[in-house]
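Long-time lurker, first post. I've been practising inverse folding by hand and with some scripts of my own, and I keep getting stuck on stretches where the structure tokens seem ambiguous. Below is the full token string for one chain I'm working on. Before anyone asks, I'm not after the true native sequence, just a reasonable design that respects the backbone. If someone could post their per-position residues I'd love to compare against what I wrote down in my notebook.
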């Protein structure tokens, strides 16, 4: 069973003017969760802190529509972003979300690491590739987490993870599963390394 950390919901932002100042978040480093709707961003955030219901999770895509900020014991801030790629959301709303997400990624000084989530069953899709290129262009450090690996057989897992890895130029990929807890420890290690670059 994963350790439970003290974590609290800080606030939601619907527009860039509402991004919280350091005085509100405590000024700690931020880790943002990005990926398609329903890929498991909110679930992975919950798994990291060992709370089932901190971030809101739903089987219905498009669940998280605002940028939600959570503070974890020790000062780290986890940021749950709205998912992209959900066709049923009207075009205008997707454009607004995209702008909201872009402004966060471009302007947020506290942002230290982006976790890009891919559904391990589907791998890279066009919008994920665009996001990856965008992050590389803007030099935002990111890691890729392949979610829901519990839904694959061992063989599918090996094949799908290899296919994801092939598009990564040697970058890191973390297989994760909320129900089994796989990958949670490794993701914590990655977060820790980013915040302590000189330590082994
Ligand atoms: N089996 C399995 N189901 C998962 C896993 N992660 C998430 N889910 C399920 O996938 C659905 C979507 O999860 P969310 O965490 O709400 O996904 P999200 O990426 O935050 O979605 P949006 O907020 O709509 O962008 C829920 O029904 C979760 O229970 C996982 O590792 N394994
Ligand atoms: Mg969500």
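-- Answer (accepted) --
I ran through it position by position. Result:
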């Amino acid at each position: 069973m994963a350790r439970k950390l003290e974590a609290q919901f800080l606030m939601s932002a619907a527009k860039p003017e509402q991004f919280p100042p350091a005085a509100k978040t405590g000024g700690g480093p931020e880790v943002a969760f990005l990926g398609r709707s329903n890929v498991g961003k909110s679930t992975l955030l919950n798994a990291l802190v060992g709370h089932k219901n901190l971030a809101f999770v739903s089987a219905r895509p498009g669940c998280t529509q605002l940028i939600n900020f959570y503070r974890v014991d020790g000062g780290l801030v986890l940021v749950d972003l709205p998912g992209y790629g959900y066709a049923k959301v009207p075009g205008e709303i997707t454009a607004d979300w995209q702008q909201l997400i872009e402004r966060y990624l471009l302007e947020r000084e506290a942002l230290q690491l982006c976790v890009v989530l891919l559904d391990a069953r589907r791998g890279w899709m066009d919008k994920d590739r665009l996001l990856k290129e965008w992050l590389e262009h803007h030099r935002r450090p990111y890691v890729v987490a392949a979610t829901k690996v519990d839904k694959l057989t061992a063989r599918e897992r090996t094949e799908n993870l290899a296919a994801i890895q092939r598009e990564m130029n040697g970058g890191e990929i973390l297989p994760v599963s909320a129900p089994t807890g796989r990958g949670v420890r490794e993701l914590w290690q990655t977060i820790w390394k980013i915040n302590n670059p000189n330590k082994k």
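A couple of notes from the structure itself: The chain has a mean pLDDT of 90. Residues 41-42, 63-64, 80 surround magnesium ion (ligand 2) (CB under 6 Å). Happy to go over any region you disagree with.
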